[in-house]
């Protein structure tokens, strides 16, 4: 018996419907109910989505909405919604809008006062993070890495000192070059996790220092295949990044006249150091 709350609402609604990222068993009953009941399914690739619909014997008609036509076609779908139809938005895999089309459609719907209802479901970013063993209290999803080496190195420079876990998508034909660019910026000791073919037969989640991970991938060409998620441990202060004696002496002098927090901020500015590191040292070593 289906819960009435899983069925489409009486008012015209745009549903954001996640689809499996590999294993068809991961689709939810609510997603199936919505896909079966709406008037139109807006799909990134109608042929790809058609296979999913056929597998579950869903007859709903589809409408192509992809990166190359979304800005033009979104208004057509908004007009359908305003005319009383309900629409489900899907991407080829996972949750729509996460490195997939849908942003312009959702924005126009909200501007037009159309009800937008998101369904929870599969997402490669969260799936990979949950099993990575990397800190998950603070993380950022950065999308696909740039196609060119310079762009990738610039991106890695941007996150080099970031303390949160950073997550990227990458394609198999660029994985070797991307990891080499990462190595040149972040060094061989940075912990990185490669999650590939999530939920599929050859699912692999491997984490180790970057230098070792590159060697591991090179050992087997199969490890370069499939859909990939790269997760990078946030920056951590290393033992060889000890605070300079001069900075500590300056901090000790400043704390005679200033609160520790202010003194740490000033010393950090003078010596180009992290104020939190100086503050922590002060708490542990100064009266």
From TrEMBL:
<dbReference type="Pfam" id="PF00590">
    <property type="entry name" value="TP_methylase"/>
</dbReference>
<keyword id="KW-0489">Methyltransferase</keyword>
<feature type="domain" description="Tetrapyrrole methylase">
    <location>
        <begin position="13"/>
        <end position="213"/>
    </location>
</feature>
<dbReference type="InterPro" id="IPR014777">
    <property type="entry name" value="4pyrrole_Mease_sub1"/>
</dbReference>
<keyword id="KW-0808">Transferase</keyword>
<keyword id="KW-0949">S-adenosyl-L-methionine</keyword>
<keyword id="KW-0963">Cytoplasm</keyword>
<comment type="similarity">
    <text>Belongs to the methyltransferase superfamily. RsmI family.</text>
</comment>
<dbReference type="InterPro" id="IPR018063">
    <property type="entry name" value="SAM_MeTrfase_RsmI_CS"/>
</dbReference>
<comment type="function">
    <text>Catalyzes the 2'-O-methylation of the ribose of cytidine 1402 (C1402) in 16S rRNA.</text>
</comment>
<dbReference type="Pfam" id="PF23016">
    <property type="entry name" value="RsmI_C"/>
</dbReference>
<dbReference type="InterPro" id="IPR000878">
    <property type="entry name" value="4pyrrol_Mease"/>
</dbReference>
<protein>
    <recommendedName>
        <fullName>Ribosomal RNA small subunit methyltransferase I</fullName>
        <ecNumber>2.1.1.198</ecNumber>
    </recommendedName>
</protein>
<dbReference type="InterPro" id="IPR053910">
    <property type="entry name" value="RsmI_HTH"/>
</dbReference>
<dbReference type="InterPro" id="IPR035996">
    <property type="entry name" value="4pyrrol_Methylase_sf"/>
</dbReference>
<keyword id="KW-0698">rRNA processing</keyword>
<feature type="domain" description="RsmI HTH">
    <location>
        <begin position="241"/>
        <end position="285"/>
    </location>
</feature>
<dbReference type="InterPro" id="IPR014776">
    <property type="entry name" value="4pyrrole_Mease_sub2"/>
</dbReference>
<dbReference type="InterPro" id="IPR008189">
    <property type="entry name" value="rRNA_ssu_MeTfrase_I"/>
</dbReference>
<dbReference type="GO" id="GO:0008168">
    <property type="term" value="F:methyltransferase activity"/>
</dbReference>
<dbReference type="GO" id="GO:0032259">
    <property type="term" value="P:methylation"/>
</dbReference>
């Amino acid at each position: 018996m289906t819960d009435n709350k899983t069925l489409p609402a009486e008012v015209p609604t745009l549903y954001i419907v996640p689809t499996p990222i590999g294993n068809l068993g991961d689709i939810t009953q609510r997603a199936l109910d919505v896909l079966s009941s709406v008037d139109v399914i807006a799909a990134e690739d109608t042929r790809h989505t058609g296979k999913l619909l056929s597998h579950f014997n869903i007859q709903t008609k589809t409408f192509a909405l992809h990166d190359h036509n979304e800005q033009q076609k979104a208004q057509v779908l908004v007009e359908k919604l305003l005319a009383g139809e309900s629409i489900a938005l899907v991407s080829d895999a996972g949750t729509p809008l996460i490195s997939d089309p849908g942003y312009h459609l959702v924005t126009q719907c909200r501007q037009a006062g159309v009800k937008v209802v998101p369904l929870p479901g599969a997402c490669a970013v969260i799936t990979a993070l949950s099993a990575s063993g990397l800190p998950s209290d603070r993380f950022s999803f950065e999308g696909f890495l740039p196609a060119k080496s310079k762009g990738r190195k610039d991106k890695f420079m941007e996150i080099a000192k970031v303390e949160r876990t950073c997550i990227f998508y990458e394609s198999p034909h660029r994985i070797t070059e991307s990891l080499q660019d990462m190595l040149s910026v972040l060094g061989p000791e940075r912990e990185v996790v490669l999650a590939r073919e999530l939920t599929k037969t050859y699912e692999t989640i491997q984490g180790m220092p970057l230098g070792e991970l590159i060697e591991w991938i090179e050992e087997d060409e199969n490890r370069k295949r499939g859909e990939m998620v790269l997760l990078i441990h946030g920056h951590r202060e290393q033992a060889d990044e000890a605070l300079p004696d001069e900075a500590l002496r300056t901090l000790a002098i400043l704390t005679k006249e200033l609160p520790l927090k202010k003194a740490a901020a000033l010393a950090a500015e003078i010596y180009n150091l992290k104020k939190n590191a100086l503050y922590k040292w002060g708490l542990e070593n100064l009266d």
